[in-house]
Amino acid sequence: MITNDFAPGSPCWIDIGTPDVAGTAAFYGAVLGWDYESMGEDVEGGMFRKDGKIVAGLGKLTEEGARSAWMIYYRVTDVDATTRAVRGGGGTVRVAPMDLDDWGRMAQYSDPSGGQFAAWQPGTTKGVELVDQPGSLSWTELYTSDAAAAKEFYGGVFGWQFGDMEMPGGGGTYSLITPAGLPEERMHGGLMQLREQDLALANGRPYWHPVFAVTDCDAAVAAVTENGGSVQMGPEDAQGVGRLAVCLDPSNADFVVLAPAQE
Q1: N or C: which end of the chain has fewer CB within 10 A?
Q2: Is 128 helix (H, G, I), strand (E, B) or coil?
Q3: What is the mean pLDDT of residues 197-213?
């Protein structure tokens, strides 16, 4: 589960770059019940809130040729040390370490296969304010064509622990991710190996996406399609996990909605 004490190596922030800030804000408002708060007339972006608490950031997509996508930030104690670990593991620095006023220090990277992710060293801002509740981040997931290489790289960068489980019906192996030194109940994500042709959304490269908790998966999916999005998979039931669907927003940024199984 994701908690907001944000142990090192755990997800602590998410934001989305989009060519249509107003349309994207309206879409997630309809699907997840988020309220959008602009950062001002001179800034194309702002914050999403759920029940008054910050759940994500939103900004204008400015990178030429980039696709609209969610970026997941992982908590670190030293962004510069993380950057050295990324380079040492064969990854690429996309945005060099930089300070964002007194909020914190960040950097963005690509893993050796091209999967994009980021690191956050907190200052006054620790991360999102609501997690693991309806309308907020509850899980992170990597689709990759080389699970073994991904585990080696991310294990070296973040110290993650991995536990493998077989998917039902011969669907392959799913690797569960837990921050270093924490028990399994603190697992925050997973990674799964797919064929390169199944990674068409990112032109064959790996990609991370967020999983958002919802109370009713089918209702969330209906809101996705009614507001210009689409569904890649589901809704379907995953034993012991809940009912989920893989979705695209109107700008083709991917995310998952999950109504967790009742204990």
Answers
A1: C
A2: coil
A3: 88
pLDDT over 90 (residue 41) = no
- Categorize the per-residue pLDDT at 204 as very low, low, confident or very high, splitting at 50, 70 and 90: confident
Nearest in space to 82 (alpha carbons), one of 111, 55, 41, 52: 111
List C-alpha distances in Å: 188 to 53, 137, 142, 222: 20, 10, 12, 27
CA atoms within 13 A on the CB side of 158: 27
Would you say 244 and 222 are in contact if contact means Cβ atoms under 8 Å apart? no
Structure tokens at 70: 């969610």
| Helix H or strand E segment including 11 | strand 11-18
Where does the pLDDT of residue 51 fall: very low under 50, low under 70, confident under 90, or very high at 90 and above? very high
Rg (CA), the chain: 17
Give the angle 145-248-242 at the CA atoms, nearest 5°.
80
Q: What is the pTM of this model?
A: 0.95
